[in-house]
Structure formats: C-alpha cells, structure tokens
Design a protein that fits this description.
7 helices; mainly alpha
C-alpha cells in the first residue's frame, strides 16, 4: 500500500492519548504489562514513563509526540508489515507515518509474546 500526504497528515493530527489505551488493551489482553509497553515506547522514542504520561495529559498529536522524541539509532532495524504497509518501503517524505508504524510494529511484537531483547533491536556485532 502507498502512503499519501493525506494519510500522513491524518495520522500526524491524531491525539496520542486517544490511541495509547488501544495499545495498552492490546498488550494487556495478551498477558503483557503497561511497564513493558512503556519500556518499548521509551526504547523507540526516548520518552520515559513520566514523559509519556505528561504527553498523554497534554493530549499531544502524533506530530508533536514524535517531534519531541529522540528516535533510537537502531530504529532502521524495525522491518515488516503493519496494517498492510511494509515499513521499509514507506517513503522518507512520510517519516512521521513511518515512525508511527515502526512503533506499532514493536507493540504488535510485544502483544504476540516476543522476547523483549528481540523487540529492542541491537546491531549485530561482527568479529
């Protein structure tokens, strides 16, 4: 599927606080915890649990959420399909949309029971 400017803008203007409970419900019903969800979001965005809650309370948009983030340098290792979009094929001009899908991929992996050390990607060191 192709990302359009309209789709990118729609996601950019969504309120993070309105989506976070859906993320939480998804992982909790699969036996994971809010702390694990926050750990995944913290790894990806640099926002800790306290700042995640502050951003929820402020009702920031995804645009603002990601503008305030320090995306992990290994984010490029997040690959796969989320909601019909292959993450690595999303055009650079739609960076915000790509970041949103990358975060959703991590949350999906958490919900599916993947081990945290696999979710929090690290570069493979070659000897």
């Amino acid at each position: 599927m192709e990302v359009t400017a309209e789709k990118n803008e729609k996601v950019a203007n969504m309120i993070f606080a309105s989506i976070y409970p859906h993320y939480l419900n998804k992982i909790v019903k699969n036996g994971r915890t809010k702390e694990e969800l926050d750990q995944v979001i913290t790894w990806f965005t640099g926002h800790d649990s306290k700042s995640i809650q502050a951003l929820i309370d402020e009702k920031v948009t995804f645009r603002s959420f990601f503008q305030k983030a320090k995306i992990h340098p290994n984010a490029h290792l997040i690959k796969g399909v989320v909601c019909g979009y292959r993450i690595e094929e999303i055009a650079d001009e739609f960076e915000l949309y790509k970041q949103c899908r990358q975060m959703e991929k991590l949350i999906e992996e958490l919900a599916k029971g993947r081990k945290m050390e696999k979710i929090l990607r690290e570069e493979k060191v070659r000897n």
